Every structure is written in C-alpha cells, then in structure tokens.
Amino acid sequence: MILGDMGAEIIKIESPKGDLTRTTPPIYLDGTSLYFISNNRNKKSVLLDLKSEVGKAAFNDLVAAADAVIYNYSNGVARRLGIEHDDLAAINPNIITVSITGFGEEGPEADRPAVDLIAQALSGAMSITGEPGGEPVRSGVPTADIPAGMYACIGLLAGLHARRELGHGLRVDTSLFHAQLSLLNYEASLTKYTGVEIGPQGSGHTGNALAQAFRTSDGWLVIDAGFNHHFKQLCRLIGIPEAAENPRWQEREGRRQDRVELTRMVQDVLATQTTKHWHGILAPEGILCAPVNGVLDALDHPQSKAYSATRPLSFEDNTVEVLTTPLWFDKQTEHPMQDPPGLGEHTREILTTVLGYDEERVERVLREGTGKKGN
C-alpha cells in the first residue's frame, strides 16, 4: 500500500475465495470488511487460481513482466504453488521476490504459520507490555504485522537498487517473528546483558523515573521529565520545589531508584487538576507532555489536519476515511489515491493491457483460470 501511495502499480493476485481480510468482522460495507477497505487502496485485484494450469500460466506471464513479487504465505504453501524465488527467477532472472512468512524460510519454526498475536507472544513483546503483576497484554496495534510490511517495502526498494549493480534479481526474506523481535532493540540488549527479564512496565520506562502516564482529575497526561533540567522545571511548575532540591534526586539514577516515592509525589499533585490545566502549564514551559487521546481526538487534532492525515475513499456507495502514508516529498507530483478494488475487478484490464492477451485468451483465463465465471 505504501508503494502504491508513492506511485507504483500494485497488482494484487487473489484466489477464488478472495483475500481473507475481505471477511474480517465486525464492520462490513456492502459485504466487504472495513479492515480490507482500510488496507487495500492503490491495488488492482486480479483473480487467478494458481492451482489451475491456465491461472498459473497467466501468473507466470505477470511475473515475466513484473519488477517484484511479494507473497505472504507459509513456506509449505509457497513451495506447493511453485512461487518461491527460484521458481520465479527461472521465468524472470531480474525479479525481486519478497517473502513474508511467520518465522522466515530457515530454522526449526520455518514451516509453521503465524499471525501477529503469535509473533507478539513468542518474541517476548507481550512479556513487557501491560501493568506489573497483570496478565500478558497484546499491543493495541499489530506490532508484528506492520513492521513486517515495512521491512518488506524497504527490502524490495533495496533489492531494486542492488539489481542495478548485480545485473540480476534477488530474494528478500522477512517474517512476523523477526520484525517484532527487531522492535525490542534496547530491551533485548538490556536483558542479554543483565540476564534478568524486564517484565511489564505499564506506561513507564525501565531507566526513567518520570516518563509515564499520570492520572489527572478528569483523565490522563503523559509526562517525560527524565532529564535533570526537565525534572527541576517540572517540580517548580507543579509546586513541589523541595523535590528538586532533594540530594538523592539530582541525577537520573537516584530518581530511578526512588521512582515509587517520586512518582507518588508527582501523582498526588497532578490528580488535583484537569488534564487541560496541567498541559496548559507544562507544555508552554518546554516540559514534554501530552493528553492521552482517544483515536477520534487524535484524528481531529489540528496537527493531524495540517498534514491531511486522513483522506476519503469510496467503496461501492460508501465513503470511508483512511490514514495516509506519512511521507511528504518536495517537488513531487501527488499521486491520486485509488479506491480499494472489488474481488477480481481488474482481471480483464490487466490481462489485456499488461499481458496483451487477445479476447479469446482473456475469456479462457476468466473461464478456466479464476475459479469463477466472467469478470
């Protein structure tokens, strides 16, 4: 989707049943899941049954014409369908293939399927998420799915660049497990060095006594006052200057060791006034702070609107607001956003314009290579 936002032509190959996310609950617009609609703009849907001889032949012709192929199958499925890198490179030696699997193409778990939740659990991410002493908590956003897609995008672009020097294509391999694991950058180094599990930190941070969410009289305010000058400024602004003078709290390590006492002191003060009150006092003085917004509040925030964080998309007779890709290029023409496709909506178009099939051959593919009649 990101590549499509930047102008790439994206052809989405769908099986006769269609992308499984077309049926993800709970919201449907004319029978199609809002989940699918929000994640599939700028893609052209081509319906092909890769298990059929005619459908596979059409797919191979698309591979011959493509710069890159991204697939998101478990290794066993890709192998059975004959769409692994060596299979596709035999058709197009310049092809860049990007494989997104649960665990990668090597190792003891390579043939196991996975989803975002499995990756969050197995990677250790869930063990440091949530409140101390509480149950394991899944992140509110898919922190394995999203970075895996981003790494795939980065790998594809790097592969296209490398092809100029190599003179041929190459394989890029990423996985949900490793993408999620990569986000535990500092946490992984800390744990390996100390040999001690971090455990859940709530909204706090292992090395910072005053970087967390604080309850106000009507909501929550996050504050990061870890640096010495921020700490002293915070104490002055909220009326506890004596805390800033405490000799134990002149440096971050001392504050970290006494974080329970210090946090309670700050919390008791902040609970007496509203979020707006404290934000109005702290933010203008350079204290890093923000209200804990709901999603609607965030989308309606003036900063979101300044960069058009959402744009309307049409699907059938519905209009849906979707997030835009947060990349802005100087002196580049903006590419129009294409609405999400219906299942197989572009099959005839792609067979004709990209592959140059005549009408007879197009009809044969529609009849014998899609698993459905007509398009």
UniProtKB/TrEMBL annotation:
Q: Which InterPro entries match?
A: CoA-transferase_III_domain, CoA-Trfase_fam_III
EC id: 2.8.3.19
Which Pfam families does the annotation name? CoA_transf_3
Asked if the record carries the keyword Transferase, the reply is: yes
* Keywords, sorted A to Z: Transferase
Give the Gene Ontology MF terms in alphabetical order.
CoA-transferase activity
Q: Which PANTHER family match?
A: SUCCINATE--HYDROXYMETHYLGLUTARATE COA-TRANSFERASE
Q: What is this protein called?
A: Acetyl-CoA:oxalate CoA-transferase
Gene name? uctC
